Amino acid sequence: MEMGIAIAFWVLAAVIIGAALAVVLGRNIFRAALFLVLCFFTIAGIFVILSADFLAGVQVLIYVGAIGVLIIFAIMLTRETQRGSPSGRLRLPALIAGLLFLATMVFVIVSTDWQIVAEIPTEPTTSGIAQALFSKEEGFVLPFEIAAALLLAAIIGAIVLVREK
Amino acid sequence: MAIALEHFLILSAILFSIGLYGVLAKRNAVAILMSIELMLNAVNIALVAFWRYVAPTLLTGQVFVIFIMVVAAAEVAVGLAIIIAIYRSRETVDAEQIDLMKW
Amino acid sequence: MPPEVALAIFLLPFLSFVVIAFVIRPFLNNRPQLSGYVTIASIGISLLLSLWVLVEVIKSPGHELSMPDYQWLAIGDTAIHIGVTLDALAAVMLIVVTSVSLLVQVYSQGYMRGDPGYPRYFAFMSLFTCSMLGLVLADNLLFLYLFWEGVGLCSYLLIGFWFHKPEAARAATKAFVVTRLGDFGFLAAILFLYAKTGTFDIAELYVLAPALLSATALTWAAIGVFSGAVGKSAQFPLHTWLPDAMEGPTPVSALIHAATMVAAGVYLVARMFPVFASSTEAITTVAIIGGFTAIFAASMGLVMNDIKRVLAYSTISQLGYMMLGLGAVGVAVAGGVLEPEHGLMLGVAVGIFHLFNHAFFKALLFLGAGSVNHATGTFDMREMGGLRKAMPWTYLTFLIASLSIAGIWPLSGFWSKEGILAHAWESTPILFYLAMITVFMTAFYMFRVVFLTFGGEYRGQSEGSHGLHESPLVMIAPMVLLAILSVVSGWLPISELLGGESHSFFGALASPLAWASLILAGLGILLAYAIYSKKWLSAESLRQRFAPLYTLFSRKYWLDELYESVFVVRILIDGLFAAFHWFDDRVVDGVVNGVAGGTVAAGRGIRRAQTGQLQAYGLAIFIGILVIVACLFIFD
With an 8 Å Cβ cutoff, are A106 and B13 in contact? Predict the structure, then answer.
């Protein structure tokens, strides 16, 4: 079991990183979008390894389904496929900044003494999440409602922005 | 070697750094948006990993991931709308040519 | 006598000023004559009170009344008292100021009739008189200086009374600025004396100043005080304002020249006489300046065509006499020739006696000039002549005043001038000879005025001689009173009261000195008679023969030009002010412009960072985050 999870993690991690690199390095914007979708999928796999079954499903539904399709639509609408997706002038500074950031994060992650607990979460987590979201004492009812309002505002805003004048 | 919290966190950091590079280096506005999605996903991985290893009984980490997804969806919708609006008026989505705030 | 009397003497004219300025002018402007009545009433009462004070002073032992003083303010351990001095000097000055002022005010009723600024005129005149009375009564330098500046302010307001005339405004400014040059030295000297002795009180300074100051410091302090007197009393080299001050109404000139303003300088030297007499250098300076100014001003008076200008130069010259009188006795005291107890009072007596006599005849001369102007509409003597017949009273009083100023026995000018000449002869022979020449010149220029104005035939063009008329009674009456005073004031025992010598009526004629000066004065009158009345000598040919001298005198030694083109323009405007301008332009503005320019230049450079490239901004943000994180690690 342990071994299987380890293998799965390494494979998934390799695919995620490879797909992500393909997204940011490739010149073809459409292919980049497809690699992004692949990346979303594999992240859903990571969620499965982490016992977050509900989130894995949501990841596939929202990211792969909704956001992936939206991005591909945007690429189509802006007809930028021919010109591709070249890198800009800030390529080298961006690389240095990214590496520095990575180095910092790795240093922090490695040097921190994490308080690991041995407990294993109960699956499935769906009902637990529902409890956590909507419980009266320590739930997230108000943020949930605000998120709903935010989505509504985003939808209206998007419509207003793209409407033909 | 057993997979531990640090593995997931380092994966998250790598993914975030790649996204950061993309945000700063890509010229296509849609590509920049895609890179931002990578960064958000990196954060999601980190949050879920923390939930799993640090506080598995509290589902707050997962709740946060859900909120992030909501915000990401809204952000993509509005961001793409803005990109399309800019494309209509300026015939380009090249970030280097969108410099209305220049001196 | 209650001490309030002394305060009332100078508060009454102030009250008059307040009533005119705040009641009559705002509410009763349609009855302007009220302001004249208020002024005359207040100064009249002041005169009566001054006479009371004089009687009390004469009766008191040592001729000095002690008055209570009040603490005005205390700053830390420093207490400043105010009080009044009532000694013979102050009492005599009070009489001079109030009597001349009163007669001038009465005269002004006629002279200023119908002027739109009538109430304003009397308000200023009241304040002027008040300031001078306060100056005379003040027992400490601080208050003396306060009223000193009050006098300066009022003279400015009155010289520039017709401020819509550019010359009047200019003359007023000139008077104010030129006297201010002297006042600066005076103020510096007051502060210096206070710093060294810790007192403003004049009586204390008599003792403390010579005791606590080194000889050099005392000399400079005394010269500082004297510079104030030079400015106010129009002594060389600050005399240039006085002839220009003629732009004011003529009664103002009379008051300035006789009782207030210019008298203040002489009074100051007299009041501070013990301090001056402690320093040989300082008192010698006073004597030299006085003696030089006397002949210097007289020389310019010889050639002026404006009657008031001749009188102005004669005032400067006579003030020079007063300074010479003070200085000559002071030199004797400082040199140890005279005993200080006697000599200090003697010097004051010599100087102030002449001031006393001069006040009456000089006021009269100006009122006479004003009366002539009232009839002819001009001050230019070339357009006068023959006024003897039309204006007999003016002629008679003017003649008396001229004889008096020329020093003819037994008129008042003779007595005081003899005192000055006698003491100059004893202590400063060179200055004595200058003064003798001045006697001749004085007689000549005064009778030149008399013959040109009143003798011969009328030369004016504006109106025929039939239009000439004597001035109204309200103007003539004060002149007659002043004429009487000009005759008798020399007979009054003023000199004895001040501690000087007495003189007998006929005994004075026994002195050869008196005969010498009488002969010189007579020669002067004779010369004027020969040139301007009988025309035995042609003024024109004399003028040509002495052309360089004539030009020198009539151009006033080019001093106005020297001051204005060299001092004001070259040194001040082109030099000092140009430097200030440069400093203001380059340094002050330069700092302001530099800050602004630096900001603009910095903005021009820094705005390059605002590329409009979102990714560049994003990069900057992440670099910032990294720096913060790095700092957290480094400084944790």
Answer: yes
